[in-house]
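User: structure tokens for this one?
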Amino acid sequence: MLEKCIREKGSFPSRGALMRALPRKVDRQTLVTILDYLEASEKILMDGGSITWLFTNNPKLIQLVKESPVLKPRNTRSSRCA
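Assistant:
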């Protein structure tokens, strides 16, 4: 329920705004635990109290990322000071 709400809305300015937008009441500790899990799994970004949905489930985009080439940095000589 919480993940779906964040995904559909996209972002919330605070945890309080998220709690008010939920269809059912959620215990604060449960909310914190779920948000920690979503952040650890890189589905959301929490910055300065705001919550933003990052994860995409677009199959075309996922396939494009899998098929895209990996770019390697050019080898550059580093000058060392002796």
